[in-house]
Amino acid sequence: MRQELMSLPKTLAEDVARNLVMVAKLLDDEPEQAYQYARVALRLASRVAAVREAAGFASYAVGKYSEALAEFRAARRMTGNSDLWPVMADCERGMGRPERALAMAGEPEVQKLDRAGQVEMRMVAAGARRDMGQADAAVVTLQSPELASHSIQPWTARLRYAYADALLAVGREDEAREWFAKALEADQGGTTDASDRLAELDGVEFVDALDPEQEADDGLKPVAEPKVEEAEVEEAEVEEAEADAEPEADAELEADAEPEAVEPAVEELQSDEEPEDAEDEGQDDDAEDSAEDVEPTKAEARSEDQAGLPEKDGDDS
Questions:
Q1: Per-residue pLDDT tens digits for 114-139
Q2: For residues 82 and 113, what is the distance between their CA atoms, to the nearest angstrom?
Q3: What pTM was computed for the model?
Q4: Cβ(87)–Cβ(76) under 8 Å?
Q5: 134 φ, ψ to 5°?
């Protein structure tokens, strides 16, 4: 690819390279964005085989099989390379033409493929058989030395997974479970969902408690309005609370007003009590005067009594 880009002006080559890097970076996780970058690169350098190939894979990732096939064919014409043959056949399947994909599996170009390419072509052919309703033939198509090999290759997990899925399609569930387990054993990069398929066969159901999409859906749910009865009860409770609060407020207001009202009352009481105290003092004075009057009278009485008594005669004694 670098040699192809070297044929472009420097600035243009840099722009194309940046877009191709983004395609490779986003293709697996963000295929739609990768497709947009690929279209930009295609507009800038449509005569570069690497650009046509990248555009083909980006189109394939978003399900635009007709566009992908056109780009792959263009890239193959430019390079004369047969490496894209299996994915071109799979584009035929995607376009609803499994017969053409199956025919491509028998073309001489397949013999030019490396071992990985031949395994890929076998899986495409098996998929075409299943598309045509030939499930048993799909199982036979996948039976190969590569499937029986114990060595782990980049394509081993996908081949075993395809075979397990084909077995399950014909009702051979026990064998399918065995091959899903073998696929999981070989799936070091997590390219398949063999673990989920095993759990499904065993009747195990996983629930993602931290699903961001579910949280977002829950966040978007409208808050339910209270029913009429509940609304009436709440309104009555509010009115009752307000009614309970009013006496307290009145009491506070009265408490605040009491000091001003009490002080004049105290002063009145004190002014009313003063005459009584004066009367009491007057009565006390009268009592003292009467006591003084009484005492002399008693003294006088004693002196009178003594005067009335006969004098003792000293001689008579």
A1: 999 999 999 999 999 999 999 999 99
A2: 7
A3: 0.63
A4: no
A5: -110, 70
